[in-house]
Amino acid sequence: MARLADYFVLVGYDPGKRGSGDGQGQILQRFPEKDWEDNPFPQGIELFCQPSGWQLFTERNPPTFFVAVLTDINSERHYCACFTFWEAVESAQPQSHPRNGEGEEEEEEPSSPVQPTQLFAPKSLVLVSRLDHAEVFRNSLGLIYTIYVDGLSVSLENVIGNLLTCTIPITGGAQRTISLGAGDRQVIQTPINDSLPVSSCSVALLFRQLGITNVLYLFCAALTEHKILFLSSSYQRLTDACRALLALMFPLKYSFTYVPILPAQLLEVLSTPTPFIIGVHSIFQSETQELLDVVIADLDGGTVNVPECVHISLLPEPLLQQTREALSMVLDPELEVADLAFPPSTISASSLKMQDKEIRAVFLRLFAQLLQGYRWCLHIIRIHPEPVIRFHKAAFLGQRGLTEDDFLTKVLEGMAFAGFVTERGAPYRSIDLFDELVAYEVKRMRAEEGNKQKILRHIKELAEKLYKNENPYPAVTMHKVQKPTEGCHLRLHQKPFPRLDEGTVQWIIDQATAKLQTAPPAVKAEKKCMVPSGPPIAAIMERNGNALANSARRLEVVRNCISYVFENKMLEAKKLFPAVLRAMKGRAARHCLTQELNLHVQQNRAVLDHQQFDFIIRMMNCCLQDCTAMDEHGIAAALLPLVTAFCRKLSPGITQFAYSCVQEHVVWTNIQFWEAMFYCDVQNHIRALYLDNNEENHTDEESTEGPQEAKSALEIASEQLRLWPTMSREKQQELIQKEESTVFSQAIHYANRMSYLLLPLDTSKNRLLRSSGLGDVESVSNSFVTNSIAGSVAESYDTESGFEDAESSDVANYVVRFINRFVDKVCTESGVTNEHLKGLHVMIPDIVQMHIETLDAVHRESKRLPPIQKPKLLRPNLLVGEECVMEGLRVYLMPDGREEAAGGNIGGPPLLPAEGAIFLTTYRIIFKGTPTDPLVGEQVVIRSFPIASLTKEKKIAIQAQADQFIQESLQLRSCTFQLLKIAFDEEVASDSAEVFRKHLHKLRYPQHVRGTFAFTVGQSPKQAMQPKVKEKNPSLRTLSKNLVKNAKKTIGRQYVTRKKYTPPMWEQRSSQHFPEDNEDEISVSEEMDRSTLTPTTTIKPSDKMTINHLVERACCRDYQRMGLGTLSSSLTRSKNEPFRISTVNRMYAICRSYPGLLIVPQSIQDNTIQRISRCYRQNRFPVVCWRNSRTKAVLLRSGGLHGKGVVGLFKSQNAPTAGPSQTDSTSLEQEKYLQAVINSMPHYADASGRNTLSGFTSAHMSSSGLGHRARVITLSTPKCVSAKGREMPRGKWGSIRASGRMSSYALNVEIGSRLAGKDLLGGQHNGTPSEASFLRQHRASLYIIGDKSQLKGVKPDPLQHWEVVPIEVFDVRQVKASFKKLMKACVPGCSSTDPSVTYLRSLEESEWLSQIHKILQISVLVVELLDTGSSVLVSLEDGWDITTQVVSLVQLLSDPYYRTLEGFRLLVEKEWLSFGHRFSHRGAQTLAGQSSGFAPIFLQFLDCVHQIHLQFPMEFEFSQYYLKFLSYHYVSNRFRTFLLDSDYERIELGLLYEEKGERKSQQVYKSIWDYIDRLNKKAPIFFNYMYAPEDGEVLRPYSNISNLKVWDYYTEETLSEGPSYDWELAQGQLEHVEEADRQDTSAPQTKRKIIWPCYDNRSRVEPDAISKLLEELHNLEMELGQIPERWKDTWDKVKASQRTEARQEGSRTPSSLLMSSGLSHHRRSLGVYLQESGVGSTLNLSLDSDTSSTSTPSSGKQGGRKSTSTLYSQFQMSESENRSYEGSLYKKGAFMKPWKPRWFVLDKTKHQLRYYDSRMDTECKGVIDLAEVESITPGTPTMGAPKTVDEKAFFDLKTTKRVYNFCAQDVQLAQQWIDRIQSCLSDA
Fold first, then answer.
1. How would you label 1404-1423 residue by residue, b for 16+ Cβ within 10 Å and e otherwise?
2. Residue in 734, 523, 808, 761 with CA at minimum distance from that of residue 659
3. What is the distance between the alpha carbons of residues 1129 and 1111, in angstroms, rounded to a whole number?
């Protein structure tokens, strides 16, 4: 029971204090006068009676009523019901009066017009109560006013006394009728449950005033603790609005400032910093303008104004939307049917009171959904003497999946929720509607989601309950309360309110109090019960099924990986590992991980080996990585016990636990996490405490119930609380003590745990753990902490996490302070006694200190541990003589712009990035390692290139996506089209990286060519500086010394010679310094000492040796082959030869860069040559290098002319010159020289000097016109043929398809017109001059192809027999630039982000192909000229770059000899090496060449050869691989062949003539040619199986860019073994790998092999058919123990048998293996491509449809079918065997059998002699095993032998079993057989 009203107060206007303008109120009377004990009188009532200030009014206002709310110091609310009316004041002079001015009003004077206006003062009747019965108060106060106004005959004192003594029940739904003794009657209904707020209609009104959205804003603002201010001009509405807002917040209670009506004097309260809900009268609206952080709701205007700086978090979706919809259904039911054509007539909103409840029902549902499952996150940490309950906020948010949600987070952190937990957390109490809703109805709400009818039904049900709670009884009894008469407040002569008699009132009160004390206390029995928990959150939160299925697979992976780790299957684990790390993104996988790890912990301890430990740590770190500091999913909580369980032994007695490696996470520094963990553990222990007690009593029952009935801690607590009052004092004490000590022991445990996770492994560092966990540093969570020693402590510590002054002191102190703070907080909250707490504070520093000591030992030991997870460095295989300069530095090989290896869009495994080491040897830079992606982890990745080919090295910054922090990175680019992008591992000190770079530089650019690998190979690197003198051949050394005597040593890049005699003339001097290539080099023409040139024909004996050596050189062999004269003939000067070999340069005196022996016209004297040479750059005068055997036209080469010479020669031979006549004579001699060349040509017969076609010898003209080479004509344009009818020049043209486009033929058109008399492009469009254009009458005998820039202004002279063809060529600089771009296109440094930069575009921009086009074009032109009988002199630049390219290509195209292996070698030796292409200079092989950079002139030539090879695959004996091999090794410096710039320099170094015996170790090959020969003997890698040359074939390739292909040498790579050009390495590796495979794979071996592009060497893994067959043959021979036959012999035999077969079939095709396959008409490659490669060639006969349709079947009736089979017939002969020798012999049968002829086959391979009935027979009749043969002797004819045979033709073969008698046709045959069999026997 409670008093209805506590105090009645009469408040009036205080006239005494009016000075300030505003008056004040004063309390006139109050009853009772002394305060109630339980309820002191509230202060400041007078302020609240007139909230807008006490003022006098000039007219009477009607009485007003409102309820103000005051909150006292105990946060009890007092409801002050104020009834205000107005009384007139005497304005004349206020008289002081003993009765407090009561009489003042009585002596009221009559009002007269003269007097000032009558004033009226307010007076208030106030009831103060703790109950909110506004209507009752209104009625009661109204009654008192009525009695006073209407002067009823009722004592006011009695009424007031009755009012103050009236008591009513607080709750329980009783109905109570009261009367105040004035004939009135009122019914008071108390709510059934006082925990539910009473709102009557206030909520509905609030929604009417503000609307749905605005109220929701206010609701959220109130819950998230914002300041809310209501404005209205009605006080009652302010109170109602505030009450409504609180009612909506149920079940949360508002605990901040709550002032529904704020008096004017207290307006400054609005600037308080704390949240509030306040109402203010609208007249003060202007004063609220400057409030910046207050949400203002104007009830009258219906607006809510949220300031800019305030952010209100709204409800989480979908709740917000659902709430809005529900509210609109309640408030505006017509909305649903507004659009219907026939709206139902009955729809109408409920009554206001009912609507009010419906709205509240919506909000009640909302809270039930927001807080569902909250009871599962309560931790009960004490039960006795009082339950202490904590809420695990993080877990709740985590399980609800709302961690990111602002609103809920703020609500849970707010005061209201804290109150909610305190009030509703208790497990044993009475329950109300909300408890039931949240426990039982959540499922229903889930199910009904989205069904509006059902939702509405639910809302109505709830509303009913709420309504019932407020109005338990239908109001039967009517109120009866007297009301004053209408307008009574306007009466003029109204008496003032009388003074009441205090005594009377007090007496009534005392009476009632006494009566109450004697009455028995009315105890309302509270219905307490256990609060239901409702379904756990997990059961409510449904997940989507698809994700579940997906995650089930992931969890499987996690489980498998963990079981592999514990079963020690590390390889398997490693493969699954990345998947596990990716799965860790999902919560389920992390939970699964913790559960799985738990299974592997026995007795709180699990000792692992290092690798297992490492895996577990990495998983834990990855798992924690994504945990926030809140640990909302409880992952860190679940791992906490595990980190102290898993450990590894570092050394005896020292164990490292997992916690030392997982400290780097922000969660450990979060004190809330530790509290939640602590409370959780305490709850478990306390639960166990009571469970144990129970179990002692009911063990049997428990076991039958089964484990699923396990009670939760809350259930146990409620049970205990129920029993508590029944227990004895001792029992109670005992329980309290037990609980307290449980909490205390947990506190000690946690102090230890926290020290484990907070003290870093290396405590010497003065910093604590990183406050930002790894998660913040890298958002990529799967990058894990790698060091298995995560001792790296971090930079700073957040102040929030507790360490304010982190600088001042050391780690131990922080940790102690942190733990102390934690312990203080949890122990006070959970009621640990003070003694215990003090004890704890003493213990903590000791715990920390002890832990630091153990950590020191662990740290020391763990430092000694090698970090495990780095793969061990693999050592590369080295060549013989190759030595490591720097041991491997651990690096990562990062992917560059090539996509293949990185597994990007192209697919395939991500081989890069790979982790391994970079090795620097004397020869190569090698990276060897394994991919970091464990799925490809077993592969080995090798990328290497020769140091000499390094073109660029630069430092770069790599965003290391690998898991390490990588210090620095290098990008190394090589001209073998390789790129190493390496990032040094953190373990590599930066100075070792520097040392690496320095060494690299030193090796790349040695001081002298002697420092290159080709020289130092096999020596220890130290000796590289002093080259050994080779004693083998002292004479040679002295010879080279003599040779060099006259010439200075090479200084820089310039040859300067001593000039002993005639100083050159001025003109000549000026012409000397002729810039070459516009580079910074000056070519100085050499003037030699005349005396050294011996014009006589005799040679000094000392030079004989040189001559012999020179004769052995390639040039000489070639000269003799072409019949350009032998050395002997040149010495004896036989006159019949047009050319002779001149020894004028034998001492390299005339031209340093020419060979010693040169071919010059017979008629020219040596001393003339010396003068001529001055006209040419570098003294490179014209010499013959090739002669066409048919037309006898010759090809000459020279350097460009010096300016003066050119002019002298062509312009003004006859004009007198200013200088001395020497220049004249020179140019005349030069002219004579050229004339001599022309004269040497056989058809130079005309006296006029014009050679016409008639000059051709008839031998070269085919009279039949078309001859037998008609098929050439079918290839070229038929028009020409019909027009001319003459034979076409020999040779073959490019393509069968003539392209329709005009090729932009870059040769000058004027040359064309000079050559052809019409446009070059006339006949053939495909980039080749038309043939007909050359068939013209007039043709010069000699064309000089020169550089256009040099030949400016040269006019053709009709008298000369030569013609100058000026052309534009590119210079070396352009080649360099183009090559750089080509490298960047083929091997980009990084993948381009710009979509416009594609591979093809950058390829085009490099202009490499257009340069190749240009070279091919010029070469084809020259070939044409030579083929039509004109000689050509190529005289471009210095005669050693483009000249060499053109001259070599011309010879290659014109002469089939150079297309053989031997011939190509000869060509390169002659044109490139002997004629002085500057290999060292162009390849920047030494320090001196460093600045000029790399110019791949030779590579360009090889690329041209490759293009020709592609177009004519059957014309070359060598394969494409051969070209790649040369391309690689000409820059690799592995061989000495391509070192230095000329023969002269090679002789100077003693390189040129190394005698045969000199090679000490057969392994180290100094010449690439020897190496190629050796390899070629071993395996057919350099051989082209399609080689089927036609005699005397001249090739004319298409040079159009559309016909050129990018050489795959530029783009392919083999990561499995590195470049395949160092043959020994690649081979050795393969065998090694196969063995390894055999050893460790216990799995069944499969025949399948996956071949990855860019990883495997395809041709080796999957060789072409022929190589494969040859290899199998070889292996069989080896197995049979025979000496294997050379592959070449086998091949030749096969081809021979092929030819005979072809002949038998009667096919007329050119004899060739391939020819029989119907390709006869298409010599040019269309479908037949030879895919070549490191290991022989793949024969890939992909005949395109067009080819096969045109190809005529070449083998008779069966069409093409047979011919293809003949391709392989050599391997499928009827006898299917190897026949070493075969023939017919007579053999005597066994005993008594006759002689019979049999076909015998001697087979070396199988080591046997087989015989057949006849040659055609496939069935073997018998075999004689040669192993059993003892002897072979001449025999005698026996009976029945053939008669006609000579008796010496008989022989016997004696085996261990019997004697065979044989007889051959004649004696020779018999002898041959005996020899063959003998040799077989001796071989074996």
1. eebbbbebbbbbbbbbbbbb
2. 761
3. 13
Instruction: List, as one string, the DSSP characters of 641-663.
Output: HHHTTEEEEEETTEEEEGGGGS-
Contact at 8 Å (CB) between 683 and 713? yes
C-alpha angle 1078/1081/1084, rounded to 5°?
Answer: 110
Instruction: Select from 287, 273, 276, 261 the least CA-distant residue to 218.
Output: 276
Q: Rounded to an integer, what is the distance from CA 1740 to the centroid of its chain?
A: 37
Q: Please, are residues 1701 and 1625 in contact by the beta-carbon 8 Å criterion? A: no
Write the CA distances from 57 to 114, 115, 1228, integer angstroms. 19, 16, 138
The token pair at 688 is 């166990």
Spatial separation of the C-alpha atoms in residues 1467 and 1449, rounded to whole Å: 9
From residue 3, alpha-carbon distances to 36, 38, 71, 200, 1300 in Å are: 11, 11, 18, 22, 114
DSSP secondary structure code for residue 1843 in this structure: S
Q: What is the DSSP letter of 669?
A: G
- Round to whole Å and give the CA distance between 1209 and 1205: 6
Strands 227-232 and 294-298: parallel
Supply angle C-alpha 1639, 1645, 1649, rounded to 5.
Answer: 105
Strands 914-921 and 924-931: antiparallel
How far CA 2 is from CA of 140, 197, 243, 518, 914, in Å, comes to 17, 17, 21, 16, 83
Q: What is the CA radius of gyration of the chain?
A: 56
pLDDT tens digits, residue range 1215-1253? 333 333 344 567 788 888 888 888 887 765 443 344 333
Q: Which residue has the tokens 């957390």?
A: 425
**1513: which DSSP letter?**
T
Q: Tell me phi and psi for residue 1492, to 5 degrees.
A: -75, -20
Give the burial string for 641-674 (b: 16+ CB within 10 Å, else e): bbbbbbbbebeeeebbbbbbbbbbbbbbbbbebb
Q: What is the mean pLDDT of each run of 10 residues along the chain (1884 residues)?
A: 85 71 79 83 85 83 90 84 86 43 38 59 90 86 86 82 80 74 78 79 90 93 92 92 91 89 88 92 86 90 90 88 90 86 76 87 90 85 83 83 83 89 83 82 81 87 85 68 73 74 81 73 65 68 47 84 86 81 82 85 78 85 78 80 85 83 82 87 86 57 44 78 82 86 89 86 56 34 33 36 46 86 87 86 88 85 68 82 86 83 72 88 90 77 91 78 61 91 81 88 87 76 36 43 42 37 39 39 38 40 54 75 66 66 86 88 86 87 89 89 55 39 64 84 49 32 33 32 37 40 36 38 42 50 84 61 85 92 89 79 92 94 90 88 93 92 92 90 84 89 95 92 93 88 84 51 70 88 88 87 92 85 69 42 56 78 83 85 81 84 60 40 43 40 37 37 40 52 83 80 83 81 84 81 81 85 86 85 74
Nearest CA to 243 out of 77, 422, 443, 108 is that of: 77
**Strand segments (E) across 722-771:** none
Amino acid identity for residue 129 in this structure: S
Half-sphere exposure of 457 (CA within 13 A, CB side): 9
- Rounded Cα distance between 1457 and 1517, Å, is 10
- The CA-atom distances, in angstroms, between 113 and each of 116, 495, 810 are 8, 22, 91
Number of C-beta neighbours around residue 16 at 10 A: 12
Separation between Cα atoms, residue 1215 and residue 832, nearest integer Å: 125
**Nearest CA-CA partner of 1853 in 1794, 1815, 1808, 1797:** 1808
Condensed to tens digits (0 to 9), the pLDDT of residues 1572-1613 reads 998 888 888 899 988 988 877 799 999 999 999 999 999 888
